[in-house]
Amino acid sequence: MAFKPPADDIRGMAHIQVHRDDISLDSPTLVEGLPGVGLVGKIAADHLVDVYDMEYYASAHCEGLPEIAVYGTDDPEVRPPVRLYADEDRDLLVLQSDAPVSPSGAKEFASCMVGWFETSDATPIYLSGRPAEKDGVPAVYGISTGDGAAMLEGAGVNPPSENGAVTGPTGALVHESQRTGLTSVGLIVEADQQFPDPEAARALLQTGISPLTDFEIDTEALVEQAEEIGRAKAQLAQQLQENQEESTSARPLGMYQ
């Protein structure tokens, strides 16, 4: 179903602003792509937006987001740093982010976003990287809130092999989803802690997102453009390393005991 913001003036208030009332969605799946370890979520989300030529659908105006104006190559139009893109045919939403979420505003950001997910009857797929020395294809496992465990079982996504915690803004989103009882799943992949990791993002798309959404995702471009992707996103990865509280990550629980 298409969601419309209230007609009253909402400037200065935390909200999601929908720009495309002509796009109709019915209980969509939402893939979250906030920056984190290996930039796995961002790379996967950006790839979905590109490969399906998704439409710019809505913008997030939540606490914790930097007040910056983002622009792209050969496009003079500026946009906010966190946006939602839609694919009406696949009933799919993707949350694309070009900037980290402030740690001090993560709770308010999560409340703002999850409240809109509930209103829109969206089922989120949260994405995180776990720092690891990889051997072969990166391992992917899943966590859940609400009725998400059945979704993971149906998609053949394995549960975690150890205790752990999802941190950063994605951890705040998962926590808020659990608190409100929203059905969601989280996919965690082994990833490079220092550099952008297109290989791990590809594993998320093939092993988790594709079976959960029940449509094929062409990931050849991630392999062919791995070096280019790494260069393009290296600066953001460095920024996140220096400010780890802004970075989404999944880590063994022993680190927090």
What does this entry look like structurally?
- The protein is an alpha/beta fold.
- The protein has one domain: Rossmann fold (3-Layer(aba) Sandwich).
- 33% of the residues lie in helices and 26% in strands.
- It is built from seven helices and twelve strands.
- It has helices at residues 40-51, 106-119, 148-155, 168-180, 198-213, 220-224, 226-242, and strands spanning 15-18, 29-33, 55-61, 70-72, 75-79, 82-87, 92-97, 123-131, 140-145, 164-167, 184-191, 249-252.
- Strands 1-3-6-7-2-8-11-9 form an eight-stranded mixed sheet, sandwiched between helices.
- A hairpin with a 2-residue loop joins strand 4 (70-72) and strand 5.
- Helix 1 (40-51) packs across helix 5.
- The N and C termini lie far apart (43 Å).
